[in-house]
Amino acid sequence: MMGPAHSIDLSMILFLLLGAGPAATPGQGHPLFRARDLRAGEEVIELVCGGADKDYILEVNGGGLVVADFDLDGHLDLVTVNGSTIDRVRAGKEALPSVLWLGNGSGEFRRGGPEWKLAGGVWGMGGTAGDIDADGDPDLVITEWGRNRVFLNEGGKGFRAVEASGLTGDHWSTSCALLDHDADGKLDLVVINYLEFDLETAAGPGGACRWKGHDVMCGPEGLTPTHDQLFRGNGDGTFVDVSVKSGFRPEKACFGLGVMTLDYDRDGDTDLYVSNDSMPNHLWENQGDGRFVEVGWRRGVSHDSNGREQAGMGIGCADVDGDGRSDLFVTNFSGESNALYRSSRKTGFREKADVARLGGPSIQRLGWGTGMWDYDLDGFIDVSVINGHVYPAADLVGTDTSYAQADQLFLGGPEQRFAERALSSATAGVGRASVSADFDGDGDLDLVVVQMGGPVRFLENRADGIEGRHWFSLTLSATASHPDAIGAHVRVQVGDASYTGEVRTTAGYQAGCSTRLHFGLGAAETLDEVRIEWPSGRVQVLEDVAVNQHLRVTEETE
Amino acid sequence: MIAARILVLGGLLLSPALADPQGGAPSVLDRSPTEWSAAESGHWKDWDADTRPPEAVQPYLLRSIAAYRRGDRPAALRALFELLEIAPDYPSALHQAGILYFQLRRHGDAITALERYLAVAPHRVGDTRTLAHAYYSLGRYDDALAHYARVLSVHPESAEAHHGQGLSLMRLGQSTAALQELRRTLELDPAHASAAFWIAQIHFDEERLEDAVAAAEHARDLDPFGPRVWFLLGQVLFELERDDEAEAAKARFDELNRLDAAVRAIESSLVFDPYQPALYRELCRLHREAGDDLALRQALRRWSSVDPAGAAAAAEPASAK
């Protein structure tokens, strides 16, 4: 949100003859998360995305994260997607290696062996995981500045790169997600693309562009955006570009950064929400026949309430108000407010970040990864926001922001109002992608966060230590649609309260999440009902379900 | 009283010798108001905005005003930095610096300057509406609300302060009180398009769609070239299933928004460096394309202050037309 068009009384200037301000109020209270560098034994896990000076826009997005149980041992693993440097690119070298880190279920990781090798690529960005070939294990997609890559999982024993995946176009891809958009039982892939970047012609060091009176690298304004792509899966690790055929092609290409799958209109198919940098965000409504229509403006999720395009980065999605419909949270640039698009009684949304107390505290921050989960297990959806500026010059005077920034946690409460609290014990950093999952198996959701110029951070959630906080999680296995059950809608009923979730593989910004659903329950001792709406349309109801357990549910056959 | 002081100073301002010889050198933008040294406590306790400034500070003030009139805010600010070195905490300079910083969108610096102004001249709270604007711009809505209330205690008929109060209340979720303040704004200034717009937005947010349409149409009549009202109008009309009208509103929004984005990009450059005739030329072209004659005349006037010949030449087609 831009500032209001307050008029200045110019006569006052004549009448009177004629540090940076304080940072936004920090969150109060004890941090919920304990931060540490992510390690594998003695090895500190770091990602590289260009140099410290950030002379080119290619160097600012950071790397990616993907969560799944790749080795099928019941514990969540983590892929860190690595970038490169300008010098490496100029020298014709491949990207620094992305790595699979195998989790042991207690928050510890070890480096995957050579069978899990992910070498290659030019400059990795993000990724996602899902059972692309439907053989019972999660496969991997990595997005790149360059050709995107597919790795098939060979029974939990290792990856095999797909040489001719059909992911055409050597674009700059950022986020991606798996879905079954045409309900053919095979996973499809949406890839979000940013802009055309040619190192040979790009404006480089020397600050050809200016921001707040300071020299900075150029972009995205003035550069050429790239169309996003939708690929229909063949079920074997190969894909076909159906972007145009499916209608997934706006009039003008945009600077795409984030993606979210959701069934916003609750008609049983998977819609898509795309955040665009400095351009209108898109909401792609699935018509039920594999075709999409863009309805972002009509549904009120394309701009802020001033009618201004924002610099959309990360996307969170959850049902904040318990009305059974998904709400959207979008992180934006400094000087703008993050946006909370709450579903309205019709099919539209209303931007409510300020009323929810999520707007004002975001204005001096530049947000990236975000998650909407019940982190403190009290029965209300919370919001995590990972912050960090794109310009090192943000530390110069007069910017009203800074390069390194504190991350934020907004704890949900009654009437959909949030209270800001320090996210973790970590010092301010230059954060980027993040992903939430219960890596240590204690029932609450931990966070992994990409940092520019530093180790990946592991934020251990300590909500499990809060008395009277219960949880429930589940993994779904569909039988009448693709087994990952992407798009399945779950409603958990506890007394008068209901909590909803939707199975997906994207964490919003350059990160792939686990398909496990997680619910905080507060003091509830038992679940009255768990209602599962499968992608096939079948409905399955479980009654009197115990809390504090991870449940695996297979779709009942009729 | 205000007019009298303008006349006194306006005469001085006409002297071309007062123009800042350094033009728009940007080095002052790398400095911070936290550099300013402080006066002894109570040094300016007898300062009165109604009296002529001390001789020693007048050249700097006049240089600052001259630069300001050219749209050269960095030069205006530089003169104030120099002034504050010889007259620490001189209240008028702090106030003017605060306004300049706000216009440069350096809201934190504006707050620093204006809070300091209030510290040395606490009786001048009525001059500090911009301080509330700056709080608001940084998302500090509680602080903004409190400060607008202070300003309104001095100037209860300030439409701008009521407007800011209304927006702050709206951001804090107090929509009923916000509507009252915005309606009061329109009573005091019936042409206040922004107040009309936000009234429409509140109605829309609260699902009073017919009220929202009426308020949005009022806002559109007050500011037909502002894209945001077309944006809102289109959204409300869609929800009312008046699709043809909504599509027309969206088309107008798209057109105006494209032009407005280009205007904003130019303005964000000119605010730091006004000596860019080519940008003024483009600015005028954009306003012409939008059909916004008022904005065109204002742009020509600003262009004329840095490039009279260029502005005059550009104005000719409009005059002939």
From TrEMBL, chain A:
Keywords: Signal. Residues 485-551 form the ASPIC/UnbV domain. It comes from Saltatorellus ferox. InterPro entries: Crtac1 (IPR027039), FG-GAP (IPR013517), Integrin_alpha_N (IPR028994), UnbV_ASPIC (IPR011519). This is ASPIC and UnbV. Signal peptide: none annotated. Coiled coil: none annotated. The keyword Signal applies. Pfam families: FG-GAP_3 (PF13517), UnbV_ASPIC (PF07593).
UniProtKB/TrEMBL annotation, chain B:
Keywords: Repeat, Signal, TPR repeat. It comes from the Bacteria. This is Tetratricopeptide repeat protein. The lineage of its organism: Bacteria, Pseudomonadati, Planctomycetota, Planctomycetia, Planctomycetia incertae sedis. The keyword Repeat applies. Residues 1-19 form the signal peptide. The keyword Signal applies. TPR repeats lie at residues 91-124, 125-158, 159-192. PROSITE patterns: TPR.
